[in-house]
Amino acid sequence: MDTLSNLGNGFSIAFDPTNLLFVFIGVVIGTAIGVLPGLGPTATIALLLPITYTMDPTASIIMLAGIYYGSMYGGTITSVLLRLPGEAASVVTTFDGYQMTKQGRAGTALGIAAIGSFIGGTVAIIGLTFMAPFLANIALSMGPSAFVALMIMGLFLVTSLGTGSAIKSICMAAVGLLLATVGQDPINGSARFTFGQVPLLGGLDFVAVAMGLFGVAELIKTLEQTEKAQVIKTKIKNIWPSRKDMKEAAPAIGRGSILGFFIGILPGGGGVISSLASYATEKKLAKDPSRFGKGAIEGVAGPETANNASSSSAFIPLLVLGIPSNVVLAMIFGALLMHGITPGPQLMTEHSGLFWGVIASMYVGNLMLLILNVPLVGVFIQMLRVRQGILVAFSLLIVLIGVYSLNNTSFDMWVVLAFGVLGWIMSKTGFDPGPLVLAFVLGPILEKSFRQSMLISGGSLDIFVTDPASAIIFAAILAMIGFKIFGGRFKKRPAPVLFSSGSGSTDTVAATDQTVVSGGVELEKSSNTPM
Amino acid sequence: MVSSPVTAIQDVQLKRTDRAGRRIAGRRIAPLVLFALGAVATVGSIRLELGTLQHPEPGLWPLITALTIVFSSIVILVRPGAETLEPWTSKSISVATGVSSLCAFIVLFSLVGFFIPAVLMMLLWLRVYGGESLRTTIILSLAGPLVLYVIFDSLLGVPFPRDLLLGLFL
């Protein structure tokens, strides 16, 4: 009952007019950037971080969360209509969604995606509501060694489930940890790697690093692209699906909700992995799998439901353990840190208003998204008319003055530019910036927990084995490494969806699914999605 | 992992060959740079004093991360991988010029305030990179910075460096 009364308090916070406004702003921006092929949720949140600095912490997290799950809805629109995924998780939706558009069923595809997203999101938030307090109680009893283990597992899963090469991701995570040490030593305050520069004494600003790697890098990358935007010719009608459509899609929505919820809890799990997993599941369970890739409604409903469920449940590790499970949540983690709030098991008791306010706002936000996406889908399509050149020029200007406003010094402008160039080079050389930013955020906490563990154990590494919680987590990490190394030898079996032997689950799904492969290739040819 | 649509698309498609994929030597530049970074950081950490595991000094944790960079960069050097990479094209040069213009913006911003460099930057990015019409370019280049100046300097109270032009009027 405690949970329900806390949730009630949360709703009273979420229904505060200011917070309600920020839920709305968040979900509208989220949907908009999902539609705009120029910016994904990561870049947008990076660009908005300086603004949240001046806001009330609860309102800022409510808004950023809204942008994240809102973008999952918005990305669907262009995937279905133009076969242009506005963000990564919607790539899967293009397979069947665009086929439905060609058959004149664009409205149905958008409608079922919105309904599925709403159901998936809501199921995951209900799970979040009841599971978070339970997990937080367990987490409160964990010592620093278990936190070291958890953070290492978080980094490990992000590097191995990510979309790039695992070893490159590990290298980037190490670079992120190293960059996090720039500044004063957390224990004795001596300067590390500051090269005599006074502005570096406080460390590199997370906002500048994130805005550079995700915001500026994406913006300058557009200079390499020459493609023109596409025009939508499709007329959208019959958005509300028929009873037959609903009947066909209902099991997929049900499975997608559960699958997405559990994948979202796993570090590295939000978004694209859940939608790929759901697509593979639906195709496997279908009576006639050949329909997939030719406009099967389950192929739209399942993945769309799953990606929304996972983007909501991904808040569980962040809010309960203080471990961001993907880059977007790392940004939200950074936003909380800027306000002097460290996410973790104590968040629920020390900042109960924020914790429950954010959760309650997600119920409200999902409802708003359903309303925005079903009757107002046409309004968002108009956003495709915004020309990229204008968007990029304004975004860059706002980035530069936004980052200046953090500390009122042009030093941060140089940092953001340097990381922008670094991010661009990384994308050209196949290095994923995600693990770097995640490690940069976790670095100081990981170092502190590691040093605390060493103090407790008197300098013995045995503590990681003797403490049951950390022993279990390390055993799980070892099991996953073992599976990664040896799992490839059992290729004849139906491929596991999550822990593949390749560079990520995307490969597994693609390898077992010719439709996906061919869909992807066609997609590549026709895609002119500039980031 | 949330990645960009572009990379996600690349992950999904598997059977694409490109010439960039065969240029293995080029793929070793990045790990070499990382190796150098790791080596320099290793030396830097040792200079910071390491202490013991029981009483770690400032250098111990950076040393662990630096060594991870060194070892992983060696692995990448040995096995640079063959995944599809975005090729370097003549268009990449425009990224370099674009970045130079941003550098110029930061330098000018400290010297003459926000408005003048912002207008110049907008002119360049809208007309040359964005391919906008002359009319749109001029209107947006003047109106955009003015609106942003009012929002950030006057409304949000961000202390911009003294503005050579707008400082006379606002």
UniProtKB/TrEMBL annotation, chain A:
* One family name in Pfam for this protein: TctA
Presence of keyword Oxidoreductase: no
Coiled-coil positions are none
Top-level taxon in the UniProt lineage: Bacteria
Q: Which UniProt keywords apply?
A: Membrane, Transmembrane, Transmembrane helix
Q: Where is the DUF112 domain?
A: 20-438
Transmembrane segments in this chain: where? Answer: 20-49, 61-82, 109-135, 147-180, 200-220, 252-280, 314-341, 353-374, 386-406, 463-483
Provide the protein name.
Answer: Tricarboxylic transport membrane protein
UniProtKB/TrEMBL annotation, chain B:
Top-level taxon in the UniProt lineage = Bacteria
Residues spanning the membrane: 29-48, 60-78, 99-126, 138-160
The alphabetized UniProt keywords are: Membrane, Transmembrane, Transmembrane helix
A Pfam family reported for this protein in Swiss-Prot or TrEMBL: TctB
Q: Which residues form the DUF1468 domain?
A: 29-161
Instruction: Please identify the protein, giving its name as recorded.
Output: Tricarboxylic transport membrane protein
